[in-house]
Write a structure and sequence with these properties.
Number of strands: 11
Number of helices: 11
CATH topology of the largest domain: D-Maltodextrin-Binding Protein, domain 2
CATH superfamily of the largest domain: Periplasmic binding protein-like II
Radius of gyration: 20 Å
Helix content: 25-40%
Shape: globular
Largest sheet: 6 strands, mixed
CATH architecture of the largest domain: 3-Layer(aba) Sandwich
């Protein structure tokens, strides 16, 4: 019997590369992999269901599950995860020296509902008492025209959100004093250029993030992997096969981090970072699975509800295909 042929969209990470280059093959599945940037594949999957399986924004997936309008079934894979204290930038001279100073300020972001921004707002509310409704939000492109929201926004009335007009960009508004802060998935070009007009809210973000993890056990997950629900109904075994393959691919990527015979040129401190991460988090610091990620999954489900992106809190046990723990 021929293998089930499925299209899979994902980005070229070290943890997906063994699937892309064929070193790992899911049992019973012949993958046709399309390597795409997340913003491109998310849009195509959410609006057109263009692939059989795809990397997808975790917050978008949870919001759809909460609305009982989700055409996908997820597997507990965390392709992208990152602490986000380093991603909050403030304008010098805006009077922001602590998180509490963000109240009443004008804050820009490229995607109000992006998982990264959801985690930033959730962290500020939990740790500093600053709610999403305490800030005036502006959504648009960092240095290019505005992109449409990944999912339609139907926010509660207490949320003040303005969309940038033609010709406006977030970085230009920050530089000209029209914004006070940026919650940015990408490092702003102004910051990379060394502009004195923009600084990080958390200068020692590494210490802040380590303390945050020790207290909460939350290691934010940005992207999961989903299978179209019609595919899952027709082939319920495929989710487990894909999950096993993604776990095998991740294991190969982690093994490669310790290849001291061919350690990446220019990164002599890489092993120090890996060992420090293991001390703070765990040996399995990039854990897949439901049980290993319960604090993070509970947090994102609560945050999307609290921030007006979902009508209810989705329980972690509801999020993934049955039997995948």
């Amino acid at each position: 019997m021929a293998d089930l042929r499925l299209t899979l969209a994902c980005w070229d990470y070290d943890r997906t590369r063994p699937l892309i280059d064929g070193r790992v093959k899911p049992e019973g599945i012949d993958l046709d992999i399309q390597v795409l940037r997340p913003r491109v594949m998310f849009d195509r999957m959410l609006h057109d269901q263009a692939f059989d399986a795809s990397e997808l924004s975790l917050a978008s997936y949870v919001a759809m599950k909460a609305k009982n309008a989700c055409p996908f079934v997820a597997i507990p894979v965390a392709l992208s995860r990152l602490f986000r204290h380093s991603c909050i930038y403030v304008r010098s001279g805006a009077g922001i020296s602590s998180p509490q100073d963000l109240r009443g300020k004008r804050v820009g972001t490229t995607q109000y509902g992006a998982t990264a921004v959801v985690f930033m707002r959730g962290m500020l509310k939990d740790d500093f008492g600053v709610a999403h409704s305490d800030m005036h939000w502006f959504m648009g492109g960092l240095t290019a025209p505005t992109e449409r929201p990944l999912l339609p926004l139907n926010l509660p009335p207490e949320v003040k959100l303005d969309l940038l007009g033609p010709g406006q960009t977030l970085e230009a508004m920050l530089e000209h004093g029209e914004l006070d802060a940026l919650f940015s998935i990408y490092i702003p070009k102004l910051f990379l250029a060394g502009s004195p007009k923009v600084v990080r809210l958390f200068p020692d973000y590494k210490a802040a993030e380590q303390d945050y993890y020790r207290r909460t056990r939350i290691f934010p997950i940005m992207h999961t992997v989903v299978l179209r629900e019609d595919i899952h109904r027709a082939h319920p075994w495929a989710a487990a096969s894909l999950y096993k393959a993604f776990c095998e691919a991740k294991a190969l990527a982690l093994d490669g981090l310790y290849d001291t015979d061919a350690l990446r040129v220019g990164l002599p401190w890489l092993l120090d970072h890996i060992e420090e991460t293991r001390r703070v988090i765990d040996d399995d610091f990039w854990a897949y699975g439901l049980e290993a990620n319960r604090p993070t999954l509970a947090a994102v489900a609560r945050y999307v509800h609290e921030q007006g992106l979902a009508p209810r809190v989705v329980e972690a046990n509801e999020m993934f295909a049955p039997g995948l723990t």
